[in-house]
Amino acid sequence: MNTLENVYEEYNRYIYHLCLKLTRNKAEAEDLMQEVWVKVVRYESYMAEVEHVKAWLTTIAMNTFRDRYRKNVRRSKYMMSQPETLDVPVLDLVPNNEPSTEKVVEQGVISQIVQEKIDQLDTIYRNTLLYFYVNQYSLVEIAGLMKVSIGTVKSRLFRAKQRLKEILMSDESSAEAILPA
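That's the RNA polymerase subunit sigma-70 sequence above. Prediction below.
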């Protein structure tokens, strides 16, 4: 059973490093981490139902960071309407097309969750998905590898995606991480 103390002991360093990756600043990471643990304490009653504690904690951290980020963006938009108080180099106002650290970490977390769920699929479905989406084999190539017809490959691909969706949606923490907020 996961007690709050055990969860804190096991995942405190992980949460701190995740917060540090997101904020790129020690002080902000510590503030964010504190907010995350406050939420964990607030939702402690749900912990007994959580299958994957690390994914649950990651979701809380990501959502907390996202909320703080949105609040800061709203605040900075207000500041933008008052140029006389704005002391920022013009280049800082130019949008950056690089994905944010938040996006990169979030994509990594989602990728990890999806990979865990793919591993739960039957071997035939898992291999079909991996051949098609990861290795990017054509349907003809997959049919040759698996020694089945193209129609069979298509139906396996369809069933694999349906089953993966069911697995993802049945786990509340993975559904929250993957569905848009």
